[in-house]
Amino acid sequence: MNARIELVVATVDDAVPGIRSLALAHPDGDRLPSFTPGSHLVLDVPAGEGRPRRAANAYSLTGESSDPRHYTISVLRCAPAAEGGSACGGSAWVHGLTVGDRVTATPPRSAFAPIHLATRHLLVGAGIGITPLLSHLRSHVRWGRDAELVYLFRDGHGAHVDELKELGGDRVTFLADRAGLAEDLAVRLADQPLGTHLYTCGPAGFMDAVVDLATELGWPSSRVHLEPFGVAALDPGDPFTVGVAGQVLEVPSGTSLLEALEDAGHVVPNLCRQGVCGECRVDVAPGSSPVLHRDLFLDEETRGAGDCLMACVSRAVPAADGRAHLEVTL
Amino acid sequence: MTPPPILSPAAPTTAPDLVAGFPFPFPNPTYRYTTNVEPARGVVTTPAGQWGAAVVDVDSAYAEELAERAAILERDPSRHAVLPHMDVACWDAMLCLMRELALARPDAFALEPLEGPRAAYRWRNDLLGIDHAFVLGDASTLPEPPLRWITAQVQEDVVLLDERDGVLYGDAGVVTFAADWSFGFDVGMSFLEIHGPVPRIHSEGVITRAHEFIKRLQPNETYRRTNWTLTVHRRLDVSTETYPDWGPDRPMVLGVDDETFGRLVHLRTEVQHLVRLPESGAVMFLIRSYLLPFDELARVEEWRERAAAVIAELPEDMADYKGIATYRDRAAAWLRAQAPTP
Prior knowledge:
The complex is a heterodimer of chains A (330) and B (342). With 330 residues, chain A is an alpha/beta fold. Helix content of chain A is 19%, strand content 28%. The longest helix of chain A is centred in the middle third of the chain and has 13 residues, at 130-142. The model of chain A has no long low-confidence stretch (mean pLDDT 90). Chain B has one domain. The A-B interface holds A 1, 31, 33-37, 39, 64-67, 107-110, 113-117, 139, 142-144, 222, 278 and B 85-89, 95, 113, 119, 121, 136-137, 162-165, 216, 218-221, 276, 278-282.
């Protein structure tokens, strides 16, 4: 599952301020494996140049999905810690790549696929969150599906605007401010044919607003789909201890359980490191404190069983005796 | 209903490649249901040869089995069903099967992406004399609907599963060689419903684990497993629809002499592949059925001994579900009686 492919940067496009679009090619010029619309690549970001750890950043694929010549991604530059921001430095690294550079990535992974039984697809994106929805729209045009797209972006900062126009024509609506969006969606979400599915991607606050409105207007949750790729930075959490293989490790505030385990020399399979992919699940033994689950992977039933957690984001919370401690098995 | 032709009823021997490539299904001395999936394409060597390199396998029965499938579809169109939302998955399955054929036999098959603004391909099947260009998603560029066209070019049965709300549904397929089940009855059911009648797998969690495993498959990931039963005659179509034709063979075979028993009773292995299709996100389930008569099986000593042990030990509920309860004791005894004299 964690196999990597090697890709070479074929073109770089910085036409939209703050956003870089990259075309990545097979090193031999071969066609690349087909992927499901809405899929992403996880790019390996090496440590160094101010990045304390290696990172793995997910970027949605925006281009042709069937036997593509290139995997294309568009990356918004987020300020890393060194510049006073909170990002891990992955996007800044992407913005420093040049044509001919080699990168490694996972093969495309699908977590936001169009639902084929939908009678209609309503796509609502904001900012760089447009990328997986562009991929959806491309697919709906190919397969003759009923689709419409609403795209909110700051004037002059919209990625893929011309491409969307060409692809979707009058099925695409561009909006420039939150007030306009609220007005538009209040009407649009209130009047869709039965069987319509709603897909949204963008900043967490934006997606929350879209989902809240949909819920208020009676949309069942099974018809509303989120691409949780712009996961907001989690708070650093309280310190706790972890027992593993007869050792007791400290997990300080700001360090994840996954990082603490790795720093102690344990190998834990992992991929996204932000609670989405499900790779770093570890088993929790009885006698542990309650778990604060912060991932987007485990379902309620599994959480209720209390026997596992996702080590990259979830933490122990103090039990009645005030002690915060997990016993884990790897 | 007219009985289906029994393939090569008078053939005195099985073609050598069908013995050498037979996927013998018993790695262990006893058989129980497990979530026995493994990555595809791993080569398994056997005392007679090997199998497993290809996801789509072309052997010397290619023309014969395709003719059999065409005849069955002609008689009973319900073996081909596609719910309307599965159109993308059908194209996707076609492309995937073409790629796999080309990988398995580059001398005989080729899929070439064509340059241009629309995704277009040229497909060559030299075994059937096909050389055809088509545009992805444009039905007017194919001679037949995509799943129908490609299943006339592979020996595998195909079921396509759609995933929604965390559940897989068997919403399309072409299945002509079902072993004691009915695709036409199952189409549209969930994966768990389809497997409802199988004993043990529910209480033991086998089927829910399989369901979770399949849902986690990422685009293009391909896994396989095997299943098995016994079939009287070299008969690929032992579907529920044709039960009146083959059902009576089960008691009948108890009354035949030993020589005839060894010729009529076949070990049937299904090699099943699971592929997450990239364009649609659907899961393609391939079932390839291999039949080896007992008299051929018994010539490979390791196979004879292992098959005898497994069939003799199989718990009664499992033997009953497989439809072999009436004659499995004789099958095991027959195999044991073939032991080489010291």
